[in-house]
Amino acid sequence: MDRIFIGYFPKRRTPIPRPGAVATEPVDEICSVSDCVASGPEGWREQEKHNFYEKYDRPESAWGVVPAGERGEFALFAYRLLLVEYEDGREEPIEPWWELTAVPMGGSFVRLGWDAVVGGNQHGFGCSPLSCNNRAGEEGVPAVNRFCLAATEHDAIEMARTFSVAKPEPGPYCVVEVWRETGSGA
Q: Which end of the chain has a smaller Cβ tally under 10 Å, C or N?
C-alpha cells in the first residue's frame, strides 16, 4: 500500500495512568496522532507554520512552536499516511492533490506503531478512537501496544475499517504510521 511522509509534530509527553485515561494493558503512554489526549503546544495552530496535514516540514520548524522553557515536556513525532481512507467499511484511495515538502526522517526516529484516526482527504486529523474514545481493549478491537497504537499495519487497517462502520467519531478513517525521535523518549 502506498504511503506519503506528511511531517513532524511536537507532542506533550502523556504517560498513563492519569485520571479518565485509557487503562488498558499494556498502555503506559499515549502517542496517538490526534491532538485530543496527547496534545501539541499551546497556540501552535495560530502560528500558521504547519502544512496541509497540520504537521511541520522540518524538525526545527516543529520545535520552533514549543516555548524554550517547555521543551523537556515534549517529544518530536513523525508521520507517514497510508494513501487509503475508510468510510462505512469501504476502502477509497486518497489522491493527494496538494504538495507536501516535508524533509524525510533521519535515522534518529523509531517506529512506535500505527494509529487509526479520523482524517484522510480532509484537512488535518480528528480523533483517534483508541485513546480519545477508550476503544483500546474493547471486544473486537485488535490489541494495542504500550503507546496505545496498533502493533501492525494490518491491525490498524482493520481498526480503521471497523471504526468507519461503528463511528465512535464521524468521518472517514485513515491509517497513520507513528514514529518518534529517539532523543524524545522512544
A: N
